[in-house]
Specification:
Layout: H1 9-27, H2 34-41, H3 45-51, H4 55-78, H5 84-101, H6 103-111, H7 118-142, H8 144-148, H9 152-164, H10 178-191
Length: 209
Amino acid sequence: MARGRSPGYDDQRELILRHAAELFARRGYPATSMNEVAEACGLSKPTLYHYFRDKYNLLVHIADGHVSRLQALVEEVEGQQLEPEARLRELIQRFVQEYAEAQHAHRVLTEDVRFLQPEDSERILGKERAVVAVFAQALAQMRPDTDAAGLTKALTMLLFGMINWMFTWLKPDGELDYETMAPIVADLFLGGVPAVRMPAARAKKAPRR
């Protein structure tokens, strides 16, 4: 009889994926070893292999898991049946806020996808394309002239350029955070700089010791 999984099996897998994503994001996928992942998780290497068969398996789960969560966000927003502009604003805000909690996984997806084998790469990139298509559809419905001019895809990719690389300059301990920036990204994209609304005054964070 096959042994059942322990009650905390899925939680342990998620913990391993979070630590591996952080290591991959900081050191790069090629430079990170399974020994380092095991050490970061406080596990022995044999125990780590009980959850994931190798480093590549970790990479696939991190990238696929992240883009699958983005797909789920899209489905949630689509289920609200909002008008095109409201839908696009909601998509932007939800994605920016999601990236705040998944910065390492997002960095792995954007920078280490080139290490995926063709079959995995095509599946994961296919999910990405489906996500982008929903943004493009909302934009085309809001501004049909962009579609007629062949600009919808370009504008959509400019939007993702703003969202995807925020982690390179928006620091966790800075004066701005993802929650504050989410509506600003929407304002900037949908109306340009004159449309950006200033966030409400916020108390300054205490200096770090």
